[in-house]
């Protein structure tokens, strides 16, 4: 089960009213959606997720609730459609929008998806299995320069030359298709003094691949480009991010709109009691923006 993060803080800052049009762009297990629905009467909740497993789960969870519509698509596709849509299936404007940009526990714990570096599984990492490129495709086909750029830019792994050389030399005779192979390649490419440093390298490499495969930064940039257009006059947008690059993208992207202000002076973090319940909340940072004319 996925435990939703910073629920009370998100609800407090979104201040949802019973008639509001809401959009949860990353429905996942539906935890935040359920919380957002609590005070909704005449309003509507639109939920998107790109992962068909999550969509099936959401359809099941909110089955029969006339306030809810579920869209098997990315959140950026949803908002760009809203920006131009005339079809009744899409809202004209959105009052409250949330994106929770982490991985769901359903995704991380399913070894067949290949997201988790602690598990043995296929090197896939596509949130939507119909997307064209898997982690194995990247590791077996991309040039040394492209691999190095990916690890540098998206994993902030600045020393990656030996890792890239080792990937190229292994794939000459054996396709790299399992998470265990990638872990071994990372282990043989660095001298780790301590286990936490090794784990950090695993996380950086897996994160870099996941970001590229799922075009995560492009999604976020496309959303930010549309925010001003699709949100209503008193709109509020909540971004829950899980690493510094994502948080920077939000911070810098939202600066393009001087009439949008962050509602708190600093990002909101999970407190000790939430961290005790849910270690995945450790990296979470919440920024909520409101339009101020
Ligand atoms: C951390 S989970 C969300 C959990 C959810 N807030 C809850 O309370 O259960 C992130 C979800 O967002 C989905 N996702 C990630 N990027 C997406 C995108 N660009 N568009 C739509 N869904 C996306 C993932 O498939 C995953 O199910």
What can you see in these coordinates?
The protein is α/β, with parallel strands linked by helices and 293 residues long. The protein has two domains: 7-106 and 216-291, Vaccinia Virus protein VP39 (Rossmann fold), CATH 3.40.50.150; 132-213, DNA polymerase, domain 1, CATH 1.10.150. 45% of the residues lie in helices and 14% in strands. Helix 4 (75-84) packs parallel to helix 11 (216-230), helix 7 packs across helix 10 and helix 8 crosses helix 9. The longest helix has 19 residues, at 195-213. The N and C termini lie far apart (41 Å). It binds S-adenosylmethionine.
Could you state the CATH homologous superfamily of the largest domain?
A: Vaccinia Virus protein VP39
Helix proportion range: 40-55%
Structural class: alpha/beta
Element order: H for helix, E for strand:
HEHEHEHEHHHHHHHEHEHE
Unreliable residue stretches:
none
Q: What's the architecture of the largest domain in CATH terms?
A: 3-Layer(aba) Sandwich
CATH class annotation of the largest domain: Alpha Beta
Largest sheet: 7 strands, mixed
Gyration radius, in Å? 20 Å
And the CATH topology of the largest domain?
Answer: Rossmann fold
Total strands: 7
| Ligands present | S-adenosylmethionine
């Amino acid at each position: 089960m996925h435990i939703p993060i910073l629920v009370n803080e998100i609800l407090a800052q979104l201040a949802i009213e019973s008639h509001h049009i809401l959009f949860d762009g990353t429905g996942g297990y539906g935890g935040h959606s359920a919380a957002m629905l609590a005070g909704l009467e005449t309003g509507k909740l639109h939920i998107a997720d790109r992962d068909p497993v999550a969509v099936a789960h959401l359809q099941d969870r909110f089955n029969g609730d006339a306030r809810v519509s579920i869209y098997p698509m990315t959140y950026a596709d949803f908002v760009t459609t809203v920006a131009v849509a005339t079809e009744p299936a899409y809202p004209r404007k959105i009052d409250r929008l949330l994106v929770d940009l982490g991985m769901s526990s359903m995704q991380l714990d399913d070894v067949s998806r290949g997201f988790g570096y602690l598990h043995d599984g296929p090197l896939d990492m596509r949130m939507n299995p119909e997307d064209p490129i898997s982690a194995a495709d990247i590791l077996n086909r991309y040039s040394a320069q492209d691999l190095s750029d990916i690890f540098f830019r998206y994993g902030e792994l600045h020393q990656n030359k030996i890792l890239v050389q080792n990937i190229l030399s292994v794939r000459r005779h054996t396709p790299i298709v399992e998470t265990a192979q990638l872990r071994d390649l990372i282990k043989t490419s660095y001298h780790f003094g301590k286990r936490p440093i090794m784990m950090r390298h695993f996380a950086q490499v897996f994160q870099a691949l996941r970001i590229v495969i799922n075009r995560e930064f492009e999604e976020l940039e496309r959303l930010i480009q549309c925010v001003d257009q699709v949100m209503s006059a008193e709109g509020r947008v909540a971004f829950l991010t899980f690493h510094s690059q994502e948080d920077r993208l939000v911070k810098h992207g939202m600066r393009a709109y001087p009439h949008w202000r962050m509602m708190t002076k600093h990002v909101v973090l999970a407190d000790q009691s939430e961290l005790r319940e849910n270690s995945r909340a450790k990296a979470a940072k919440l920024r909520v923006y409101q339009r101020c004319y």
